[in-house]
Amino acid sequence: MRGRLKIYLGYAAGVGKTYQMLEEAQEMKRQGRDVVIGYFEPHGRKDTIGRTDGLEFIPRRRVEYRGTVFEDMDTDAILKRRPQVCMVDEFPHSNIPGSEREKRWQDVQVLLDAGIDVLTTMNIQHLESLNDQVWRITGVRVRETIPDWVMQQADQVVMVDLTPRALLNRLARGVVYPPEKALEALKNFFQESTLVALRELALRQTAHEVEIRQVDYNSPGFQAVPADGDVTDEPPRSQERILIVVTADPSTAMLIRRGKRVADYLHADCFAVAVRTNWDRLEAASGERDAVERHLNFARNLHIEARLLGGHDVAKTVVEFARLNGVTQLFLARLSTGRWPAFGGRNLVQQVVRLARDMQVIIVADRSKQQAH
Amino acid sequence: MIPTTKRRSPEEILQQVQAEEDYEKRGRLKVFLGYASGVGKSFRMLDEGRRRHERGQDVVVGAVQPQRPPEIEALLSKLPVIPLQVVEGVAVMDVPAILKRHPGVCLVDGLAYDNPPGSPNHSRWQDVEQLLEAGISVISSVNIQYIDDLRERVARITGKYVSQTVPRSFLNSADEIVVVDAPPEMCITRSEDAEADARASSQAQKLSELREIALLLAADVVDRQLEQYLQRHGITQTFGAQERVLVCITPRANGAVMIASGRRNADRFHGDLTVAYVRQAEISADDQSALERNLAIARDANAHIEILDGEDPVETILQFARERGITQVFVGHSTQERWWERYTGTPLDRLIRGADDIDVRVFPH
Q1: Contact criterion met (CB < 8 Å) for A369 and B357
Q2: How far does the CA of residue B322 sit from the closest CA of chain A (Å)?
Q3: Which of A173, A200, A209 is the mutation pick for testing B, counting most B CBs within 10 A?
Q4: Mutation test of the interface with chain A: which of B4, B44, B152, B181, choosing the one with the most A Cβ atoms within 10 A?
């Protein structure tokens, strides 16, 4: 049987994710379960370090990279030790180049496949589909991301909540970072409005994660108790199908993230297509081809079925494909203003809007602009 | 989109100064929000009191629940307590004694309790209001089943209907709100007994629904706080975590489909729905009645309805959308393209082009 995954979700460093995870690990140990620490990041926080007392550590793996020795989680050693439960801090971490797997979340998949339960921590900023929104709120482009489907596979997502004011107090008392680093953090990330917005994102995401895990209303074993005699009808399962139009445009990654997020929330099917126009003839198109391939692969990594279609006219090909496949919503990126055509010409957005009159067309916002404070 | 600082009138500035002064004098309210008994909200409240006490703050316990597990007793033994008074067989918080003692922070559990008839305040949350006005900060905890506008929904899930409530507005006024998010047990044990399994899974389902309500309630309160914060600092909000859908209707628009879709999107994202109409001069009687039908649909969908005035409908909609922090605009397809629009672009083209940081969803006619 596959192991179970539990994620402790926070919205900033210092809210107490690792602490709460360790509390639970201790509790499990008291109940007689075989718990080990696969990876722990102490950050010099005394309270948190104190909570590891009595728990077994699996020694880290030492890797040399470009003349420096780094330490990382030793997945093989954990597999060999075979505990029932393994605690893994910092889920979105990227492994040292040259490691067997690129990302720590992939190592966690291996542990789960081996039947080991995993407890792990992450902040909301690292969820792939929120990447652009987080960039707007914080001005930080987060590079280490967790695909949404990985979070959806978790058996549980728990919000570790602390109010921004309490967090700022902790920071001021030096609990989170040493003084120089704390000052730096206060200037950037740890502004109250930023923290409040991130916290709201985390609360809403946790609520969403709770909702999608709810058993179907109609399943046996659940009977709603209507207080006023009304029978609450659950809306029928969505028949929506979303198609994302992939191009070489740099805004495509943002489009894919947004399309996937909407699809998840609407419980809609989600596909992506790109159109190969005259790549074979044009040498100059190789850059474009690479970009399109990259974007299609990005979509596949987010578990979106992605395809490359042949055709001369992008708008026509996409709309026909959409019709044939019963698509109800077509997602497109807006083009940067410079790409709007001169008098009389029409760009892709305009062409698709005119052709696809029997379905909804969504032109996705440019969320790449940074929010000024 | 760059936030702008609004120019304000002297009256507005004075009002703000007054509001800030009142805010400074008032005690701070912090609430731990739970979704079921036993998630540990009272413990979290008392534990925070203990930590503040150890850091040298002047903390007293004003009211705790009558039944107390050992870990709660242990915390209580470390804190000064102002005992409850018993009036006509009902335990009542001793407000005069607390006011006299005037601590920095007072811990108050059981917010929804009613005081006996003839008491100065009807409910305990009003006692708390009095402490806050006197400049005493309060840390409290409450279960979502006692929030007035959630009571029905929670009762539908739990089958238990409570008679005493705390108004939502009181919760909205809290300076800080914390969700105590202890999820239902990780390992629901599978047993041989199918009936017990069904009971356990039904219980887990109910808890999960309650948990979702609590998280969304906290998110709403937090969203309000973000708005207030940005207002206090004169920033027009353009970002946030909440989805806000704006459906633009015209007499000819397929209002029923657009509004239903808007409602569904807003609900799925737990967001907000507004339906707007830009007033047009001289519309036919047919159009007028079509418009009214669409507005009636909007009312039924429980949307905020806005009638906007402006020379240029596209600009009017975009400006309104920016002011309200709209994240998705829903529009109908322009009916007929006129020959010159081939060169100037249709209103729809202009809307799409102008809405660069908002999603535009175009509906077929």
Answers
A1: yes
A2: 13
A3: A200
A4: B181
CATH fold of A5-212 reads: Rossmann fold (3.40.50)
| The CATH classification of domain A241-364, taken from the options 3.40.228.10, 3.40.50.1820, 3.40.50.620, 3.40.50.720 | 3.40.50.620
Question: Which DSSP helix (H) or strand (E) runs through B156?
Answer: helix B151-158
Q: Considering only alpha carbons, which residue of chain B is nearest residue A211?
A: B212
Inspect the interface and report whether the beta carbons of A369 and B1 lie closer than 8 Å.
Answer: yes
Query: Is A227 an 8 Å CB contact of chain B?
Result: yes
Rounded to a whole number, what is the distance in Å from the CA of A209 to chain B's nearest CA? Answer: 9
Q: B265 CB near a chain A CB, below 8 Å?
A: yes
A128 has a pLDDT exceeding 80 = yes
Judged by CB atoms closer than 8 Å, whether chains meet at A163 and B349 is answered as no
A61–chain B Cβ distance below 8 A for any pair: no
Q: Tell me: do B211 and B334 sit in the same domain.
A: no
Give B364's contacts in chain A (Cβ within 8 Å). 356-360
- Work out whether the CA dihedral A247, A252, A255, A257 comes out positive or negative: positive
Q: Is B198 exposed, middle or buried (0-12, 13-18, 19+ CB in 10 A)?
A: middle
Q: What is the pTM of this model?
A: 0.79
Q: Structural domain tally of chain B?
A: 2
- State the span(s) of chain A assigned CATH 3.40.50.300: 5-212
| pLDDT one-digit tens code per residue, A319-329 | 999 999 989 99
Shared-domain flag, residues B113 and B53 = yes
Query: How far is Cα of residue A100 from the mean position of the Cα atoms in its chain?
Result: 22
pLDDT computed for residue B195 by the predictor = 73
Q: Is residue B239 part of a domain?
A: no
Q: Report yes or no: B269 at the A interface, CB cutoff 8 Å.
A: yes
Please state, rounded to an integer, the average pLDDT across all residues of chain B.
Answer: 85
Within this chain, do residues B313 and B333 fall inside the same structural domain, yes or no? yes
B4 in contact with A at a CB cutoff of 8 Å? no
Answer whether residue B194 shows pLDDT above 80.
Answer: no
Would you say residue B5 lies in a domain? no
Residues of B in contact with A161 (CB under 8 A): 178-181, 218
Assess A372–B contact: CB distance below 8 Å, yes or no. yes
* Among A136, A137, A195, A203, the residue to mutate for chain B (most B Cβ within 10 A): A203
ipTM for this prediction: 0.75
Print the domain residue range for B113: 10-232
Among the listed residues B299, B297, B295, the one whose alpha carbon sits nearest the alpha carbon of residue B277: B295
Task: List pLDDT tens digits, range A174-207.
Answer: 888 887 777 777 776 778 888 988 998 999 899 8
